[in-house]
Amino acid sequence: MSAELNESPFPMSTPIATPIGLRRRRTATLGAQSSPAAVTSLTQREWSKRYRRWLILTDSVIALFAVSAAFVVRFGDDPVGPEAQQLYILLSGVIALVWLAFLSFTRTRDSRIIGSGVAEYKRVVNASAFAFGILAIVFLILKIDIARGYFILALPAGTLALLASRWMWRRWLLSRRRVGEYTARTVVVGKRDDVAYVLEQVAKQHSMSYTVVGAAVVDQETAEPFSSRGTSVPVIAHIDGVAQAAANLTADAVIIAGPVDGGSDYVRRLGWDLEGTATELVLAARLTDVAGPRIHFRPVEELPLIHVEIPQFEGGHHIMKRALDVGLTSLGILLISPVLALVALAVRLDSPGPVLFRQERVGRNGERFTMFKFRSMVTDAEAALPALMAQSEGNGVLFKMKDDPRVTRVGRILRKYSLDELPQLWNILTGDMSLVGPRPPLASEVAEYEKDVHRRLHIKPGLTGMWQVSGRSDLTWEESVRLDLYYVENWSITGDLMIMWQTVKVVVKPVGAY
């Protein structure tokens, strides 16, 4: 699985960052307790400033190029007079400047959102839409005559270019973070179990911007270091010595991983101790399987409240999801119709039997439907299944077998590149499935679901999903269920688009397909 997959639109834990002051520029080297893998040549403040300068530069080039290209496309074959030309050149500069201003005002380059999740992309899209919306209103009020075609061309082209630029910068940033650079040197504080949980989440996701250089524990019965995914993290202090330990290690952040002795009083005192430094104080809210977009903060006097949205399975977002399904699926069928014809011909010539395989699956709210796939097995595959059950490599109710003898020669190729799934585009058009969603289960699988697992049926099953981009058949039953339930409660349109993009990469470089 590529590093980009780990920047999932659904983060596994939600840190609440609170900056406490600014640290003076540091040049100290690491102490003997720190891991060599954690060595970084720049402090968080230094690398984030440098990274923002690069983003500002590329954003500026793209904004100027977008409005210039729109001008050329719109007026290249339709010359305008010198005065009108000067006006449009001036307006192009104004549009670019306002656009860049909105990208700054909406904090699209905030160090807390770069490198993971969808917040950065959302802010770029929102900033672009707001900038052009306000410009359109101002031009209308001031009665500034501007060609709509020219104005409309710059927005989609420039926004797509900005998103592509941010994606490429993110790929570069992730490559640096995999070797321990461009991260915040972090000390984790709490009970051993809570600290171990945070360390596991940080180690699991390369996209996270933290490199843990030490831990301070409440129940310090032993100084035994923590071990997470091949990385050793030393216990450097008791919780009462966190501020001094963070200073000794030149830490950029201190994460409090759950309840500690002293409660809110301890957190307040630690904040005081960190005053005058650039160390951030981070409270890890262990809201299991709740994605960031569902969490909102509401300060009420001296009681900061965390609001967690209850999942909704009806309403406007689902209407938008359906509209996206119909639009992209219709376009997709038109574009890949030659591929569909070639695959159908290959299936027919490879082995006797029908081109399409039909199977009853369970959809939203338990409704059953007929799912279509290109046939990748021999015609008596269902009858031969009971004899193979003893050889299943699955975990739970799923049957898995890497070298399934029922799969045809062409079928192995179709399965490897997910080409056998393409007829499900028809299921999407008819409304039985969605482009993104949980894996469509068999009725026999649903019959063995535990109570909580039935929540997978709250939304339509998908042609692709988190299971598709996270290992496919290599996943255990428990992992598959966890990913599907996580998606059901935390999905978003932006998250769906990111999963679609991840799916394209997985299809090109298959992982766990058999």
Automatic annotation (TrEMBL):
Q: Which family does it belong to?
A: Belongs to the bacterial sugar transferase family.
GO molecular function terms here?
phosphotransferase activity, for other substituted phosphate groups
Q: Which Pfam families match?
A: Bac_transf, CoA_binding_3
Domain Bacterial sugar transferase stretches: 321-509
Subcellular location(s): the record lists:
Membrane
> Known InterPro entries for this protein?
Bact_transf, EPS_sugar_tfrase
Q: Where are the transmembrane segments?
A: 54-73, 85-103, 124-144, 150-169, 326-347
- Protein name from the UniProt record: Undecaprenyl-phosphate galactose phosphotransferase WbaP/exopolysaccharide biosynthesis polyprenyl glycosylphosphotransferase
Alphabetized UniProt keyword annotations: Membrane, Transferase, Transmembrane, Transmembrane helix
How does this chain sit within the bilayer?
A: Multi-pass membrane protein
